[in-house]
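Suppose a colleague, Dr. K., hands you the sequence of a protein chain of 65 amino acids and asks what its three-dimensional shape might be. Before reaching for any lab equipment, you can write down a predicted structure in token form. Begin with the sequence itself:
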Amino acid sequence: MAVIVQSLIPADVAGVIFTSDPVTGDNNRVVIEACLGLGDALVSGKVSPYRLFWTRRGQMLFHVR
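The predicted structure, expressed as tokens, is then:
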């Protein structure tokens, strides 16, 4: 087993990219969820993220705040 230790840097924006829509399972849609600051607030559910929906060809479909 290995342990990776990395130092954090101050972030303006952090996010997560899903290569398929986690709600619908659509493999042709890429979903990006982002929030201001560090990503820990996003992954812990403390903030409501910006959601961006893209096609696999790079066309933005819509965004939700």
